[in-house]
Amino acid sequence: MAPPFVSVTDFEEEAHKIIDKKALDYYRSGAGEQFSLNLNREAFRRLRIRPRCLRDVSNVDTNCTVLGNQLKWPVGIAPTAMQKMAHSDGEGGNAKAAGEMGSVFILSTLSTMSIEEVAQVAPDTCKWFQLYIYKDRSLTEQILRRVEKANFKALVLTIDAPIFGQRWADVRNNFSLPSHLRLANFDTRSSQSDGVHSEEGTSGINEYVASQFDATLTWKDVEWLVKSTYLPVIVKGVLTAEDAVLAREFGCAGIIVSNHGARQLDYVPASIEALPEVVKAVGDDIVVMLDGGIRHGNDVFKALALGAKMVFVGRPAIWGLGCGGSAGVREMLKVLKKDFEITMSLTGCQKLKDIQRNMVVHESEYAKL
To answer: What range does the record give for the signal peptide (predicted)?
Structure first.
């Protein structure tokens, strides 16, 4: 890893030189014209920070507790599929780095290391499991039992993917999982483990999802999941107050406000734009979190000010992984954490509770002056 890496952008630019093009396009692309992909970043830029001065910030404390998990800071690693395409350390490398930095790691169902392998590599990391519900419901139940046995601390049900969005880069590339890799959470003899293969003019990941995922899911299935496990259930993919209220009604412990990295439906709002209405709808009744567009410490600050209890980074963790495996992820998280600590100091916030709603406003507030 060639120093200096002083921002997440440095890791991104370096990773783009290293990761295979088809895999790189899979990780970095969004749906359709990628309007929402760009909006995830642009929406953060439209928010202004109102710093407070002359406060004692000699000892900034970023420790927090989320869903009973004690963490060193409110930033975790979002679920991303097939991470061994970025580096041989794969999901285990990401999980290990998250643990070393006192973060949460969320393992994807579509991972290239199994639940058990990740648990062995990163036994002390706070791990959550991202779940897709398969048409074969018994398969989903088997996964639940394995997740519980491996000491994962929560389930994250992705609810915005009855099918996968149209990602033009994957279609143009005839994207498929490299032949030396497999979807490791499934028996090697099963159709679910065969990997992600494509025919000419198609995306293998979209074909896989259409053939395996259950598109009939409703909120009653969320209720079934809540009753099927002792683990707290978090729903990921909420962008509206209406769905936030339903998540609370059907027994969820948490919400991740997310547009799936802008990979599902184009022209949806940025996650940070949707956050305030979700927070207003459910208050403190349910833990509200966010992913999408986080690149800087002040992005973390803005999300917390608008009501998120925690945020997650997806692509930045992949860029770190590509730049040196687990060590690269750890360095990326160190850079982001330092940036967040500086933001807290310069806004007069000694503890996370000092970050208040009135410290972040939309740029339009200043246009009124």
So the answer is: none
pLDDT tens per residue, range 194-231: 555 545 545 556 577 567 888 899 999 999 999 999 99
Active site residue 260: yes
| Inter-residue contact 169 to 29 (CB < 8 Å) | yes
Among 180, 197, 260, 362, the one annotated catalytic: 260
In this structure, the dihedral spanned by the alpha carbons of residues 189, 195, 196 and 197, taken in order and rounded to 10 degrees, is: -70
Q: Are 288 and 308 in contact (CB under 8 A)?
A: yes
* Encoded amino acid at 271, one letter: S
The answer to whether residues 1 and 331 touch, using CB atoms and an 8 Å cutoff, is: yes
Residues of the chain with pLDDT under 50: 1, 193, 198, 201
Residue ranges of the binding site for glyoxylate = 26, 132, 167, 260, 263
DSSP state of 61: B
CA dist 317 and 140 (Å) reads: 27
Under 8 Å between Cβ of 113 and 129: no
Token digits of residue 23: 């895999």
Q: Is the dihedral of CA 240, 245, 248, 251 positive or negative?
A: negative
pLDDT tens profile 247-300: 999 999 999 999 999 999 999 999 999 999 999 999 999 999 999 999 999 999
Do 87 and 321 contact (CB within 8 A), yes or no? Answer: yes
Which residue ranges make up each domain of the chain?
8-185+199-360
Q: DSSP letters of 327-346? A: HHHHHHHHHHHHHHHHHHHH
CATH class for the domain made up of 8-185+199-360: alpha beta
**What contacts 114, CB < 8 A, 6 or more positions away?**
184, 185
In contact, 216 and 199? CB cutoff 8 Å: no
Contacts of 252 (CB under 8 A, 6+ apart): 222, 226, 233, 234, 235, 286
Q: Which residues are documented as binding site for FMN?
A: 79-81, 108, 130, 158, 236, 258, 291-295, 314-315
Residue 191, pLDDT score = 54
Identity at 52, one-letter amino acid code? R
